[in-house]
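Narrative of accomplishments. A recurring question from our advisory board has been how the design workflow behaves on a single, concrete structure rather than in aggregate. To address it, we present the structure tokens for one chain from the evaluation set, followed by the sequence designed for it. No filtering or post-editing was applied between the two.
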């Protein structure tokens, strides 16, 4: 039987986490983060509150642990390694979000919305999303140069898609985008995040009430019918709406801008995307961009419910665990020459969407949107180029989801 090497880790300097990315290599993990992988597949890190959770760096170990029911996603555990400071009230406000629940409650709530995100349902939306992309690009081309790709395409597209799916009025996009931005900030105060969450929760609760009175053919109306049937509470429905609205636009928006920016730095790879007439080539390119960029860059967080032995270490019950997908997706044991962008590689085993029961519910939708955006953008605007130096691009070093605040482009 192995034992937890607490003494060994205590005798060595425990590195702080997270570490800022190097400005000269904004697409890569920081040298300090890479150094964690050199300490083994599991090592301790020091968090903002001076706690020392386990950081899991290996691809195989992350896959195993993310599928292990002895790790809990419940935010309320005392040892849960929150990525940001929080207040008790803020934590309580997120209690009804199934992303922070364990099975069977997690599975019960997730099943109520999972049907909207099946591959079949998502594929039926592809022609509509293609029209949306063409429309946003057309507006950009008709406007002044340079344009900010974030505001012209990357943010409005997934915002419109998830709004249509949920039944949220798109004209409210500035409201929910502003509050979402606070919730994914790593530097917002606990009070600011709690206020933003309360704003979105109140907004979604009102919408759920409207759907109960006048149901339509959208996801929130479906939740309303489950409320009427006694299968769901109104508070649970509003919490699910907040989760889906936030998750449905933030990550995809950042992948659109980061993927575009990365391809502009690799013109030979960009040309392969632009010229491909095989959907499988585009699909493979999207998987490689997801692997390479890993925009959910502060790790997936869990708490051990029991002692877990793995890779010669023992994670004790009650200890926090941070699973670093950013490093798993650069594991050379799984991805040869992992720091090389190669849209032709088989990157399907990346962990950008997580693994196990908590894997990203909306991944079919995100994949489809990215598969439409990248080739359409580069075919319609073949001369697209940056209108600012890479060093001047404002990267989201201070956000839970990595990306850029602005991406000036011209053509």
């Amino acid at each position: 039987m192995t034992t937890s090497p607490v003494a060994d880790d205590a005798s060595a300097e425990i590195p702080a986490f997270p570490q800022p990315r190097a400005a000269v290599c904004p697409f890569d993990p920081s040298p300090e983060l890479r150094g964690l992988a050199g300490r083994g597949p599991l090592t301790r890190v020091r968090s903002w509150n001076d706690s020392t959770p386990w950081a899991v760096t290996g691809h195989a170990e992350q896959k195993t642990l993310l599928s292990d029911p002895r790790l809990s996603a419940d935010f309320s555990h005392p040892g849960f390694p929150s990525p940001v400071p929080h207040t008790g009230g803020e934590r309580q406000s997120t209690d009804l979000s199934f992303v922070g629940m364990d099975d069977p409650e997690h599975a019960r709530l997730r099943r109520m919305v999972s049907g909207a995100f099946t591959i079949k349902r998502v594929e039926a939306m592809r022609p509509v999303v293609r029209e949306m992309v063409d429309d946003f690009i057309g507006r950009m081309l008709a406007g002044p140069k340079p344009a900010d790709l974030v505001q012209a395409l990357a943010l409005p597209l997934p915002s419109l898609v998830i709004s249509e799916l949920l039944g949220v009025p798109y004209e409210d996009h500035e409201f929910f985008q502003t509050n979402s931005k606070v919730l994914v900030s790593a530097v917002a105060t606990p009070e600011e995040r709690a206020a933003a969450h309360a704003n979105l929760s109140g907004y979604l609760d009102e919408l759920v009430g409207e759907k109960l009175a006048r149901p339509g053919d959208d996801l929130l109306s479906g939740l309303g019918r489950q409320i009427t049937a006694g299968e769901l509470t109104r508070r649970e429905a509003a919490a699910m709406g907040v989760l889906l609205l936030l998750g449905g636009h933030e990550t995809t928006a950042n992948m659109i801008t980061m993927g575009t920016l990365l391809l502009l730095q690799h013109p030979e790879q960009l040309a392969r995307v632009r010229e491909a007439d095989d959907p499988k080539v585009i699909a493979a390119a999207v998987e490689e961009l997801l692997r390479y960029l890993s925009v959910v860059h502060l790790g997936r967080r869990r708490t051990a419910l029991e002692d877990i032995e793995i890779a010669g270490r023992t994670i004790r019950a009650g200890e926090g665990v941070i699973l670093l997908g950013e490093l798993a997706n650069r594991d050379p044991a799984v991805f040869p020459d992992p720091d090389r962008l190669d849209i032709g590689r088989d990157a399907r085993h990346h962990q950008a969407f997580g693994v196990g029961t908590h894997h990203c519910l909306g991944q079919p939708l995100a994949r489809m949107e990215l598969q439409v955006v990248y080739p359409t953008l580069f075919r319609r605007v073949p001369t697209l180029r940056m209108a600012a130096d890479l060093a001047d691009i404002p990267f989201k070093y201070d956000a839970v989801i990595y990306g850029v605040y602005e991406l000036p482009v011209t053509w």
